[in-house]
Fold this protein.
Amino acid sequence: MSDTEKFLQEAFAGESQANRKYASFAEMADKEGLHQAARLFRAAAEAEAVHAANHLRAMKAIKSTRDNLKEAVSGEDHEWEKMYPEMISAAEREGQKGAKMSFHFANEVEKIHSVLFGGMSAATDSQESYPYYVCPYCGNTVARQAPHACQVCGADGALFKKVE
Ligand SMILES: [Fe+2]
Ligand SMILES: [Fe+2]
């Protein structure tokens, strides 16, 4: 891999993180009543998302949707088969309850994502149209309608965020 390719990957990772970090900082600023600071965090988050997308394009990492779905399945599978199990063990060993819970939620939901992406891979030509619902606590992702309660974390299904 060339230096430029390596730097694009690094820059993509950094900008992606900054995007999510600023979005969370904006939520905190709103909670504190600091709404203008919240707006600035949201604006910068948007800008970091533009940078991340530009880097990804420069890396030629966006393929056709059929290829992207396959890549998504293998990424999700890697996470729940290998990455998160190791992280969960480490958090358990080190008595880090918050980290363990966070890893556990992600681990459970990556399995669900893999199934959803795999199913979509087999049905890209289907004309069917339906929304998804995402749990605000664990990220559980459910097609068509929100469950009564989240099967991963137990949250009230009414709190799920609808994604059109
Ligand atoms: Fe996922
Ligand atoms: Fe949940």
